[in-house]
Amino acid sequence: MKTVLAKTIVTNSKNYFWFGTKYNMNIYRGCSHGCIYCDSRSDCYHVENFDEVRAKEDSLRIIRDDLRRKKVKGVIGTGAMSDPYNPIEKEELLTRHALELINAYGFGVALATKSDLVTRDIDIFKEIKQYSPVLVKMTITTVDDELCKIIEPNVCVSSRRFAALKQLSDAGIDTCILLMPNLPWITDSDENIIELVRRAHECGVKYIYSGFGVTLRMNQRDYYYEKLDKYFPGLKEKYQRKYRDNYSCAIPNVKTKYKMFVNECNKYGIIIDMKKIIYDYQLSYKKYNYQYLMNLNQFDRLCYKIRLYGSLY
């Protein structure tokens, strides 16, 4: 296993709005999934040899020390730049041991993955969930396994991801589907969107968060267009005519498609608004901490507020 140096791994999040995460954690660098649309391939992230997965050297010690120094508890997000359940993880167990540390130090976790290996760690998720929020997000862009093999070639197919979500939901873990990106003229059909929502409901998924389009920028755009030429001849030219050099490329008829998506989710009681998702999966822990606070005497309550202000998730 190749490694890269790191001074710190658990860092302050700059965007609490993204699933209410207070901290970010990426144990690995690079990704082997080979998804044709991946934004993390963009030049702005400065990830050399992006398709090669490397672990951060001495990561567990660094994570332990980072957590020890955090005075305020909160939810730790992971999976934004590199899948925490990449093929290396099966043998190295770095994500599993990091979750054990998160549990030991009393933090919550909101992770994103495309791998059904995540079900291996249900036991730890259940331990963390006793005291802190847990949210497992699974990216699913298409219900068609054959199409999935083309646009996401080196990861388990969508049907296996749905099965993993059901297993997690049945175990009492809050689950979310990331329906993003939504690729114009590839995954944006009414049939795909409606069927994805229906299957999410069958698997006990509580939340779906979607971006109805794809982002394209330097390096990533070139890679994506190269794959379009290979697998969808003629589609690149269609993109170039409609989107030119735009970064954000919304699917055609986006307002109509989104309204249909909202109606389908409402039918099954699936939450799609980010603020409501955060409130829902973190609510019980706010209540828990509030009740604990109310049971303290005035002096101890003041000390608690000073020590943990802002930690009520």
Can you characterise this structure?
The chain is an alpha/beta fold and 313 residues long. The protein contains twelve helices and twelve strands. The strands form three sheets. The chain has a seven-stranded mixed beta sheet, sandwiched between helices. Helix 4 (122-129) links the parallel strand 7 and strand 8. Helix 1 packs parallel to helix 3 and helix 3 runs parallel beside helix 4. The longest helix has 21 residues, at 274-294. It is globular, with a radius of gyration of 20 Å.
List the helices and strands and how they pair.
Blueprint: E1 3-4, E2 10-12, E3 23-25, E4 28-29, E5 54-56, H1 59-69, E6 75-78, H2 89-92, H3 94-104, E7 108-113, H4 122-129, E8 134-139, H5 145-151, H6 158-170, E9 174-179, H7 190-202, E10 207-210, E11 213-215, H8 220-231, H9 235-243, E12 248-250, H10 254-268, H11 274-294, H12 298-308
Parallel strand pairs: 1-5, 3-6, 6-7, 7-8, 8-9, 9-10
Antiparallel strand pairs: 2-3, 4-5, 11-12
Helix pairs in contact: 1-3, 3-4, 7-10
What's the mean pLDDT score?
90
Q: Percent helix among the residues?
A: 40-55%
User: Can you list the strand order of the major beta sheet?
Assistant: 2-3-6-7-8-9-10
Major sheet summary line: 7 strands, mixed
| Overall domain count | 1
Distance between the termini: 36 Å
CATH architecture descriptor: Alpha-Beta Barrel
The CATH class is: Alpha Beta
Order of helices and strands: EEEEEHEHHEHEHHEHEEHHEHHH
Q: Which structural class do you get from the secondary structure elements?
A: alpha/beta
Low-confidence runs of at least 5 consecutive residues: 290-296, 304-313
How many DSSP E strands?
12
Described by its quaternary structure, the protein is single chain
Cα-atom Rg, whole angstroms? 20 Å
* Number of distinct helices: 12
Q: Write the CATH homologous superfamily.
A: Aldolase class I
Please tell me what the overall shape is. Answer: globular
CATH topology value: TIM Barrel
